[in-house]
Amino acid sequence: MSQQLTLEISDEIYADLQRKANAVGISITEWIVTVLSRQGAAANRVMLTLEQQEQARQKFKSHAGAISLGYATGTDNEAIDADLAKAYADEY
To answer: Which of 2, 21, 41, 50 is the S-S candidate for 31 at Cβ 3.0 to 4.6 Å?
Structure first.
């Protein structure tokens, strides 16, 4: 079974679609259906279930605080200024 969809698009968009369809030798309708089908398939691969999203979120959160620089970091402006001065003075 198929459905019919009517779209109203600008002349510029239509001309662009026509050029793209002509470049591969198919009709505008075929080109649009092909592009939408590919995008839909890609979106299905990217979409995660709520459970998968939560698992990914927890995995990401587990990395927080995993690296220690060996010293405290923060808003110590003097240390930041010293680090910047050292970095700018270093000739690569």
So the answer is: 21
When computed from its CA atoms, the radius of gyration of the chain, rounded to whole angstroms, is 27
Mean pLDDT of 52-71: 82
Band the pLDDT of 92: cuts 50, 70, 90. Answer: low
Please tell me the predicted confidence (pLDDT) of residue 51. Answer: 85
Rounded to two decimals, what is the model's pTM? 0.46
**CA-CA-CA-CA torsion sign (45, 50, 55, 56):** positive
* pLDDT, greater one: 43 or 52: 52
Question: How many angstroms separate the CA atoms of 52 and 62, rounded?
Answer: 15
